[in-house]
Amino acid sequence: MSTPAWLSHFGFREPPFSKEIPDADLWLPPSKATLVSDLVDALEERASVLLTGDPGVGKTCVLRALKKRLPNAGFRLTYCHNATLGRRDFYRQLCLALGLTPSATAAALFYAISSHVQDLGKDQVHPVFLLDEAHLLHLDTLDHLHILLNYNWDSRALLSLLLVGLPELQDRLALRRNRSLYSRLHHRFTVGPLTIADTIAYVELRLKQAGGTLDLVAPEALARLHESTSGVLREIDRIAGAALRDAARKKRRAIDCDAIDRALQSDPAHAAA
Fold first, then answer.
1. Which residues contact 8 (CB under 8 A, 6 or more apart)?
2. What's the number of domains the chain is made of?
3. Is the pLDDT of residue 1 over 70?
4. Which of 32, 132, 196, 268 could in theory staple to 81 by disulfide, Cβ–Cβ 3.0 to 4.6 A?
């Protein structure tokens, strides 16, 4: 496969703002690195956690960093991202993720999972169920999750739930009908956007990893990029990538504010703002 012309123009080895980043190359600003440490501490306490944030602010990056940091010896992390299932199918999906043979009824599925959790506890392994996109959880599933945390008359913390989703997840859990689950989420964290210093450091790192330097982006263009994206990582990737392609088409050797503005104007969401 031939190298795209815009990559050759800047001498990049790879697209600098692709989401295909190896875990070892993940970048986190100090605030998000602290959040990962807080998550590890919470799980080492065998607590359950709520993690919310707007789309694109870096929740998945935080989770990938958590996966890398969490000790393999004493934990078993199970990731589920399809939250749009009824209770029986949700537990069937969880059984499959755990390597268990799914049963026919919801009661049998729940029993298989809870028994598996207790068996792991006997082996000194603490299971963590990471439920991504949890703001989409079906009401009947959300109503039942707190029961999954109840072992030995609710006297032992054999399982941690890590619920991850958009800010409306917090609103759903705060409803009176969900208070049994919400009260069990002892740690509640929010992922916020980048600061201007974070944005500059992030762009510099991504350009360097691809074979470029920060000189490819004018200082005023960096400020414009941060302002227009509100420090949202996914938006930074998209607009910065579009601006690079625009600059290459115009045979420019660097991104200026005009390239950022043209990238914004070509995007329906920003153009309508």
1. none
2. 2
3. no
4. 132
